[in-house]
Amino acid sequence: MRLQVIGGHAMAALLGLVISTSYGLAQKAAGDGAVYEKNIPIKVTEVAPGLYFHYHHQESNNAWLVTEEGVLVIDTRQHPQRAEELLAAIRKTTDKPIRYVINTHAHGDHYFGNKIFKREGATFIAHRDTAGMMREHFDSEMKRRMGYFKQRKYDPAEVELVPPDITFDTNMTLHLGGRTVELLYVGPGQNPGDTLVHFPKERVIFTGGPFSKNSWANPSFTPSMENWVELLKKIAAMDVDTYLGGHGDIGRKEDVLHEAQMLADFNTGMREAVARGMSQREIVEKVKFEKYKDVRNYYRMHLFIASYYHFLTTGKPKTAYSKCCVPVPGMK
Ligand SMILES: [Zn+2]
How far is the CA of 5 from the centre of ligand 1 (A)? Predict the structure, then answer.
């Protein structure tokens, strides 16, 4: 009899496991595409002469510009070992020295590889708010990436905070080997300090945090969803053909406008729900934003709702930056 009870418990535990597994699969089938996304290989594309895009769907993206006077790199990946891989990919295209690194925003998956490029002699550039966020949130960024380090068997102790050597407030133009690179800041999008890296002649822009093709972005950091939407409309109106996101594949204008519409709908839907007095749980269960269920990361919608609910009910982002933000004319 006792044995049967134990057997019953064991069976229940087993059933529980099966149920949670099939629930996980159902989530994937509902839109985040995680099953096929696992199989998307890292891809390097020369989007304009000497300008390369490094697309890693499961983690984060980079770009680099090769000139006669050296190389400019955008973002450095999620761990020094990943940065070594990026450097190896760059070395397949050039043996010129690494002159500059731009960090587009202060999320660990875009700057935790900095020390490898410091070793290579690069000068680091970032927006003033990105520099501040790096210092203020380094520990919490490390904490939320411990699972990743463990899974990849990466030593967290290898990551070092390498802050920028140069900061800027609204814009900055670099000239390197006859090429022009503009760093633009039009206020926060996904993050305080979000830097847009514009290659005017090449009609290309690297968008870091605010734009990622067909992806839901984590809204825990934005102090203004309105400014984020405006930022996307502004870059969609620029004389640019190619939009390189911090995540996702190469985008076009329609992809940028699609994200602007999605975030505007999310903002409106959330504000209406909160104004009607709905709780966070009710919003998760009833509002759902299913129109966008086929967009990458939709399976994390409950977390996005929780973050933005926090913002709307407290007036502060879930992950707030205390010195936010360098003011920009016309910022919403
Ligand atoms: Zn990222």
Answer: 48
Residue type, 294: D
Q: How far is the CA of 79 from the centre of ligand 1 (A)?
A: 13
177: CA distance to ligand 1 center in Å? 29
Q: Ligand 1 mean position to 110 CA, how many Å?
A: 6
User: Please, which pLDDT band fits residue 36 given cuts at 50, 70 and 90?
Assistant: low
The string of DSSP letters for 64-127 reads EEEETTEEEEE---SSHHHHHHHHHHHHTT--S-EEEEE--SS-HHHHTTHHHHHHTTPEEEEE
Compute the CA torsion angle 287, 290, 295, 301 (nearest 10 deg): 30
Find the 246 Cα to ligand 1 centroid distance in Å.
6
Q: How far apart are CA 33 and CA 83, in angstroms?
A: 26
Q: Are 109 and 79 in contact (CB under 8 A)?
A: no
State the distance from the centre of ligand 1 to the C-alpha of 14, rounded, in angstroms: 36
Task: Output the CA–CA distances (angstroms, integers) from residue 123 to 71, 100, 102, 132, 155, in the order listed.
Answer: 11, 5, 9, 18, 25
Distance 78 CA to ligand 1 centre (A): 9
**Distance from the alpha carbon of residue 247 to the mean position of ligand 1, in angstroms:** 6
First to last CA, the chain: 69
- State the DSSP H helix or E strand holding residue 2, giving kind and residue range, or none if neither: helix 2-27
pLDDT in tens, 146-197: 999 999 999 999 999 999 999 999 999 999 999 999 999 999 999 999 999 9
Residues 6+ apart with CB under 8 A from 52: 44, 45, 46, 63, 64, 65, 66, 90, 93
